[in-house]
């Protein structure tokens, strides 16, 4: 259903696109003498039809009554003729069946002859038609895809032979009737289908007889064809004539009756072998496998795929199978692959561990130095191949000691650096790996022999065993001390210095560690406040260390901030400790709180507090509460809407020293609402509320072209307010309101308000319907000839023009308040032409001798139509008012009663333009006193045919004189019959009416004919066309 709706919608859009004035055109004569198809159901043409191929062959069945066919012209104006055998040429209509033709049993010749519209070009298509006898029991063909018949097949030869190898266990046969209607086909007494493969037919070893039985259509005769197929026997030879390996010679030397062999041991590097077997009988097959795995086929006399060798013993089997598939023989080869593993699977030490992760392929390892107390080390090597490899241990190139895999061995460690060698010898003695471990045993001395400071002195006398010292406080300007330590073990121990500073409440934080040299001064930086200087001594054994501590205080006078941050946002100015005033960009309405993070230069001694001030309605600053803040930690302060000033006050350790930093910030309003919304003329249907965004109005008249919209802001500081209609682009207000243009129909008015903070916006909408105009009357209707008295409410008029007037134009004028209506004009049921308001229409041709109907259609904006008609006749002659074809009779109706009529049929002529032939008028029938004349005719007529009617002057006489000569064209058949006939002609693939035929019809010159008699081509006519979308056939002739 959805597809049908979609198709109809697409067609309707396409038709609307096409509904513009069009021009008829005439196809000139050309040399196209082609057929585009030859249609017949009696058998396939050979070769397949092509317009450029003119000779074909086909075979009928003996049961076919007679031959018939139909041809389709490429150019429908060409002349088509046919003949069968020696008959005369016979004319035939395009795509019309010849009917059954007299056909001889045996060979016949049928021909089509096409004469192009230029009258010169002629093309003849020939079909050689074979019509078999009903007693024909011959085969036309007999073949097989897997054997060759001897002799080659001929219908008259009934006995054949063929030979196949043993591998061919069955065959297929394809038998084809000479007569497609033959009664019976059996192969080996089984029903078969002519022209289709039969089988498989199984074959035994030796001679096999296959019979093919054919019976004729009339069952009066039959014929049997036989094929004797000989299948060869299978071989039983499963011997090899030769067997070689890529790894060396076999032992013993190969002979075909010896089935067991061996190969010398191969090295560890040889991980695969290939086998090359050669069979005595080429039809035998060979498979190989290794170590009981799956057999793999290999070619005769070619190397197998690589056979993987495992470490140790391997067995290779070569299996030979004779052609008969029952006789087999297996040859066996054994080979040993030596192990070459000289690796360790693991290597462990205790105490401690290797610095590097152990891997068998990594040979060099180190250890962290061991302490003074570690005088021996346990080594545990584990072999990857414990059954074949051998391992030893050696320290500092001393004695070599063998080790059992997986068992620890203890080695002595002198002080200092030591190298331990772990050597592995593989089963293959050419493969050796040497693993090395480097380890150092350290000293443990951590004493100082002296410790001095400068400036100043230690309060206590130094002694190596005394670890804690104090000294008098130093001034603010003393920002460092020189500390000179002297080591007891200056060659092995190390010394470093690190200052720990109390940031308040015993929050001791370390400074950077500074390494020093024994006997040389080390600079210790002193922050303001309490400091502990740690002098660290580390023995050569880094696990042993100790500290000497010096406690010293540096006084502070710092009342500065090192940083001041806000969130969200940032300062407009870059922060500097000496800069006290800061500003920041205004923050949005959603930012109700501001986070202040002050960081003191002296966080352990100084003190910081925060206090906010808000500008009141009289521009006076109103203070908020002051509260303390921890240095480096954020504190939130509330921001009222408007201007704010925040004070950040810092007190130094000396409370007489202070400074105040200020931050100016504005919090923007976020109100994007309206306080009222009015329109004029009219009112909103809904009561206005600031939080309601959608409104409607009652419909306004068609004459209301503008609407005044007056919105009032809730917050006068809002960033912007603007209005747009129907998406045409926003415009600002003028004088507090906007005049918007209303289009006919529904209009969408949008009022957009952006709050002061630019992050909030509301869009209010008003929907208003401006009614469409229903006015469809004319204020005036003028004609180019004759006199027409016009009244807007009178819709039908009669007009008489002179006999010399052959065309007329009209000038319709709309009322002053009705400029949006649409005007079209046509004459005698032809196509409508668009006419601009107050403009002359195109010249409308008058047909002589008839009453011409001029129609002026006015369509209002809302779609309601009004039709004005003018009946135009020429003075002084009887007019032909009516012409229709009923069956094979033409009916003419004049405007006056007849006194008499000619009996000469040549006064009337009707030519079928579509068929290219004239209709013959055989009799004129009339009654004096009646206005009617009937013409009896003969000839070919089909709905949709274009006819040319000619009437000579004075064919009839009336009281006002004789008729004028006239020449007019018209289409035979009712509009619906014409539609069906033309769709049938467009259905060239004969599969029914579908979208392709509908589109082709609409693209044609007759594609917009009024089908339902309402005078216009509109959607109702489109519906009639779409209802034809189903398989149809051409309607029968005969219409009005």
Automatic annotation (TrEMBL):
Residues 1-24 form the signal peptide. It holds the Pfam family Cadherin-like. Residues 974-1008 form the EF-hand domain. GO terms for molecular function: calcium ion binding. Keywords: Signal. The keyword Signal applies. InterPro entries: Cadherin-like_domain, EF_hand_dom, Ig-like_fold. This is Cadherin-like beta sandwich domain-containing protein. It comes from Paenibacillus thalictri.
């Amino acid at each position: 259903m959805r597809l049908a709706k979609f198709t109809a919608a697409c067609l309707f859009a396409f038709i609307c696109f096409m509904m513009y004035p069009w021009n008829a055109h005439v196809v000139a004569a050309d040399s196209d003498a082609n057929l585009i198809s030859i249609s017949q159901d009696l058998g396939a043409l050979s070769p397949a039809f092509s317009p450029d191929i003119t000779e074909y062959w086909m075979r009928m069945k003996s049961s076919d009554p007679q031959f018939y066919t139909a041809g389709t012209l490429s150019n429908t104006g060409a002349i088509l003729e046919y003949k069968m055998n020696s008959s005369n040429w016979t004319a035939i209509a395009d795509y019309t069946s010849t009917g059954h033709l007299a056909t001889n049993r045996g060979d016949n010749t049928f021909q089509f002859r096409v004469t192009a519209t230029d009258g010169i070009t002629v093309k003849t298509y020939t079909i050689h038609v074979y019509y078999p006898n009903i007693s024909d029991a011959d085969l036309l063909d007999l073949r097989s895809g897997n054997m060759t018949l001897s002799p080659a097949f001929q219908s008259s030869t009934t006995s054949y032979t063929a030979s196949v190898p043993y591998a061919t266990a069955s065959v297929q046969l394809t038998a084809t009737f000479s007569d497609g209607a033959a009664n019976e086909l059996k192969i080996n007494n089984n029903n078969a289908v002519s022209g289709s493969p039969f089988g498989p037919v199984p074959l035994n070893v030796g001679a096999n007889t296959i019979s093919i039985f054919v019976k004729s259509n009339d069952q009066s005769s039959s014929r049997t064809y036989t094929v004797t197929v000989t299948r060869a026997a299978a071989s039983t030879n499963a011997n090899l004539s030769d067997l070689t390996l890529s790894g060396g010679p076999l032992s013993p030397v190969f002979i075909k009756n010896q089935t067991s062999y061996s190969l010398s041991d191969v090295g560890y590097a040889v991980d695969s072998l290939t086998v090359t077997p050669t069979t005595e009988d080429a039809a035998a097959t060979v498979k190989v496998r290794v170590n009981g795995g799956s057999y793999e086929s290999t070619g005769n006399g070619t190397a197998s795929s690589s056979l993987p060798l495992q470490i140790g013993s391997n067995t290779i089997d070569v299996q030979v199978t004779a052609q008969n598939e029952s006789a087999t023989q297996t040859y066996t080869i054994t080979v040993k692959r030596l192990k070459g593993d000289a690796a360790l699977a693991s290597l462990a030490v205790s105490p401690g561990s290797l610095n590097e992760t152990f891997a068998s392929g990594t040979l060099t390892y180190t250890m962290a130095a061991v302490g003074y107390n570690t005088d021996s080390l346990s080594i545990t090597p584990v072999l990857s191949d414990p059954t074949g490899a051998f391992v030893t241990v050696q320290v500092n190139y001393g004695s070599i000691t063998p080790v059992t895999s997986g068992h620890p061995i203890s080695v002595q460690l002198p002080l200092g650096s030591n190298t331990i060698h772990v050597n592995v010898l593989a089963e293959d003695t050419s493969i050796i790996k040497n693993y090395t471990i480097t380890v150092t045993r350290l000293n443990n001395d951590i004493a100082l022999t002296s410790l001095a400071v400068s400036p100043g002195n230690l309060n206590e006398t130094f002694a190596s065993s005394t670890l804690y010292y104090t000294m008098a406080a130093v001034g603010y300007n003393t920002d460092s001390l020189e500390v000179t330590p002297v080591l007891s073990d200056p060659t092995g121990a190390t010394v470093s210095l690190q200052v720990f500073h109390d940031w308040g409440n015993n929050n001791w934080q370390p400074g950077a560690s500074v390494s020093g040299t024994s006997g040389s001064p080390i600079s210790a930086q002193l922050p303001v406040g309490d400091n502990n200087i740690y002098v660290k001594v580390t023995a050569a054994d880094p696990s042993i260390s100790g500290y000497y501590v010096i406690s010293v205080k540096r006084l502070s006078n710092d009342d500065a901030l090192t940083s001041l941050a806000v969130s969200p946002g940032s300062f407009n100015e870059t922060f500097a400790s000496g800069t006290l005033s800061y500003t920041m960009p205004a923050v949005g309405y959603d930012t109700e709180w501001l986070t202040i993070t002050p960081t003191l230069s002296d966080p352990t001694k100084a003190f910081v507090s925060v206090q906010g001030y808000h500008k009141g309605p009289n521009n006076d600053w109103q203070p908020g509460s002051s509260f303390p803040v921890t240095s480096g930690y954020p504190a939130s302060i509330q921001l009222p809407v408007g201007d704010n000033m925040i004070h950040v006050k810092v007190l130094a350790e000396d409370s007489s020293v202070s400074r105040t930093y200020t931050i100016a910030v504005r919090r923007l309003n976020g109100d994007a609402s309206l306080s009222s919304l009015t329109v004029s003329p009219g009112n909103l249907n809904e009561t206005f509320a600031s939080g309601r965004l959608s409104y409607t109005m009652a419909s306004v008249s068609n004459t209301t072209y503008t609407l005044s919209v007056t919105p009032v802001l809730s917050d006068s500081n809002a960033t912007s307010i603007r209005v747009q209609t129907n998406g045409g682009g926003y415009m600002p207000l003028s004088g507090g309101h906007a005049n918007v243009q209303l289009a006919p129909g529904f209009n969408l008015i949008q009022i957009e308000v952006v709050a002061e903070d630019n992050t909030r916006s509301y869009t209010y909408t008003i929907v208003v319907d401006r009614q469409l105009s229903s006015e469809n009357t004319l204020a005036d209707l003028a004609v180019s000839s004759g006199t027409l008295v016009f009244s807007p409410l009178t819709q039908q008029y009669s007009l008489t023009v002179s006999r010399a007037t052959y065309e007329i134009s009209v000038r319709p004028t709309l009322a002053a308040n009705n400029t949006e209506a649409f005007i079209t004009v046509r004459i005698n049921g032809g196509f409508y032409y668009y006419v601009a308001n107050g403009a002359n229409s195109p010249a409308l041709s008058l047909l002589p001798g008839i009453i011409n109907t001029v129609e002026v259609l006015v369509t209002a904006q809302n779609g309601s139509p009004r039709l004005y008609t003018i009946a135009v006749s020429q003075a002084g002659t009887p007019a032909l008012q009516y012409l229709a074809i009923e069956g094979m009779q033409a009916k003419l109706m004049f405007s006056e009663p007849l006194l008499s009529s000619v009996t000469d049929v040549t006064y009337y002529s009707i030519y079928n333009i579509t068929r290219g032939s004239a209709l013959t008028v055989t009799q004129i029938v009339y009654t004096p006193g009646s206005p009617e004349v009937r013409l009896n005719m003969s000839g070919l007529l089909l709905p949709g045919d274009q006819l040319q009617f000619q009437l000579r002057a004075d064919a009839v006489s009336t009281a006002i004189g004789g008729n004028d000569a006239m020449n007019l064209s018209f289409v035979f058949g009712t509009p619906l019959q014409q539609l069906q006939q033309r769709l049938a002609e467009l259905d060239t693939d004969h599969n029914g009416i579908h979208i392709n035929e509908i589109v082709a019809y609409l693209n044609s010159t007759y594609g917009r004919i009024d089908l339902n008699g309402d005078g216009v081509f509109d959607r109702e006519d489109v519906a009639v066309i779409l209802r034809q979308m189903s398989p149809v056939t051409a309607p029968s002739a005969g219409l009005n």
